[in-house]
Amino acid sequence: SVVSYLPGSAAVPSATAAEIQRVFERQRETAIRLRTSTAQERIAKIRRLCDAMMTYRQQIHEAAYLDFKKPPAEVDLAEVLPVVSEAKHAMRALKKWMKPKGVWPTSLTIGLKSWVQYEPKGRCLIVSPWNYNVNLCFGPLVSCIAAGNTAILKPSEMTPHLSALMAKMIKELFPEDEVALFEGDVSVSTELLALPFDHIFFTGSPAVGKVVMAAAAKHLTSVTLELGGKSPTIIDETADLALAARTLMWGKYTNNGQTCIAPDYVYVHASKKDAFAQECIKVIEECYGKSAKEQMASPYLARVVNQRHTKRINALLTDATQRGARVLCGGEAVENECFIQPTLLDDIPADAKIQSEEIFGPLLPIMPYTDLDAVIAAINAEPKPLALYIWSRNEANIQKALKSTSAGGTCINHCVVQYAHGNLPFGGVNNSGIGNAHGEYGFRAFSHERAVVRTRFMMARTLFPPYTKFKSKMLDI
Ligand code: NAD
Question: How far apart are CA 456 and CA 270, in angstroms?
Fold first, then answer.
């Protein structure tokens, strides 16, 4: 990259309450006007956003590099491409999604024509986290525009170069009464959350998800909450270990472990633990180098987002090792460089803090097991995760893991790629989220499903008084 990374983040400008209120008011009339917008009009806006992703691709690379040394290939894969493919999918399918869906009459409504009509919710708020700031702001924006709404966007303040670039792009692309973006931290979020939006689409941590839902409750605003948590992983005794190590290390160390659906911890069958750990170490060394020095210089390994999080993750590591955990590889940290080595941990004691907090960084606990039922019971004792992964060649084990647990999504013999499938719903369950994103699911998240009934002839006459003997007989149950 032509830009050079300097750890430590710049501050973002903060929108004022008056400015936010003014734009929110301006969007009122526009939201009503957009109710009758056609598929073509919405597609034209989505195309503008899609084209801008390509025009600004280089600048997105540079901003992400400045923010946390994110490798450009990972920016393409996880920021540019997902928005472009979400946009292309919507442009292709929007007419079909918007079409009212006719429903069959039931025994009580014979003679009535009925359908579900998708109407825009109105004024929507989209709040994104820092880890895929562009993707998780502009991806939902595609669905929001597809459904015919206005939008106010609030990207995370923790990747300030990306936040500034996103603000510039939105200003260029849309009039503020259709789509506006406000930069800022919690204080800006809090101002926004006080407003009576028609829908809030929030991506972030479960803790802040609760704040968002409580604020939405004040206005009975509907919410989509895309949250996080600890995503468990199982590698059984029949798994292809080389494949498991290769795919798992990729899913874990892309974005340096700062991915909502990254494997958080691994249960591996005790008979395969050492062989699996060796395979993982081989992959880490191949991809990022052997020593901390080599890994720090690697162009393929993003940094931790800031010093606060580096300290947090390093404290989890220190706490685990002080309680007796063993470092299988890695283990070094340079806090002022926002750097922590890809680290595999063994012998983690149950009371280590790393067992109860979403790691969201480059540490990976590996835990041996002998009884799959006990693993499933342990997973079921925790809040429902956003993702659960299993590597196995035993169909019975795969089905058992799939059917006896609950998770937002699952990959079998892979990880993270469930996110990339535009025809699958992407979302969590309870603590890991409410509602879904992507494709038609995203369109529906931003739409109200309106029930419409149209009479074709006057069969309904039977309902009205006087209730003669004949009518009463007809209504007899
Ligand atoms: P976060 O919850 O701290 O912040 C998310 C957004 O909320 C930011 O824009 C932030 O400014 C705002 N915010 C922070 N505190 C707030 C408050 N008290 N009131 C109102 N708004 C507030 O999350 P983060 O650190 O940016 O991202 C990491 C979390 O997001 C992890 O838990 C991760 O698993 C989750 N995540 C989930 C998904 C998903 O699709 N489910 C994707 C990426 C990240």
Answer: 68
User: Rounded mean pLDDT of the chain?
Assistant: 96
Going by the DSSP 8-state scheme, the letter that residue 106 receives in this structure is: -
Among 151, 141, 150, 143, which residue's Cα sits nearest to residue 34?
150
Please tell me whether residue 151 adopts helix, strand or coil conformation.
strand
For residues 123 and 138, what is the distance between their CA atoms, to the nearest angstrom? 16
Atom number in ligand 1 closest to CA 226: 41
In total, the chain counts a number of residues equal to 477
**Burial class of residue 29, CB neighbours in 10 A (0-12, 13-18, 19+):** exposed
Place of tokens 């419409």: 452
Q: Where are the alpha helices (H) located in 114-159, listed in sequence order?
A: 135-146
- Residue 373 class from Cβ within 10 Å (0-12 exposed, 13-18 middle, 19+ buried)? exposed
Residue 368 token pair: 């041996």
Q: Give the distance (Å) from ligand 1 centre to CA of residue 182.
A: 16
* Tens digit of each residue's pLDDT (9 = 90 or more) over 110-161: 788 999 999 999 999 999 999 999 999 999 999 999 999 999 999 999 999 9
ipTM above 0.85, yes or no: yes
| CA Rg value for the chain | 25
Digit-coded pLDDT (tens) for 392-450: 999 999 999 999 999 999 999 999 999 999 999 999 999 999 999 999 999 999 999 99
Rounded to whole angstroms, the Cα distance separating 418 from 412 reads: 10
**C-alpha dist (Å) from residue 27 to 40, 178, 341:** 21, 6, 47
Catalytic residue status for 329: no
Please name the amino acid found at residue 378: A
Q: Is 260 a catalytic residue?
A: yes
- Amino acid identity for residue 126 in this structure: I
301-314 pLDDT, tens digit per residue, is 999 999 999 999 99
CA of 156 to the centre of ligand 1 (A): 8
Q: Has this prediction a pTM greater than 0.95? A: yes
β-partners of residue 345 are 327, 365
Q: Ligand 1 pocket: which residues have CB below 6 Å?
A: 127-132, 136, 154, 156-158, 185-186, 189-190, 193, 203-205, 208, 211, 226-228, 260, 358, 360, 386, 428, 433
Measured from the CA of 185, which atom of ligand 1 is nearest? 11
Q: What angle do CA 65, 70, 72 make, to 5 degrees?
A: 85
Are the C-beta atoms of 444 and 427 separated by less than 8 Å? no
Euclidean distance between CA atoms 33 and 143, whole angstroms: 18
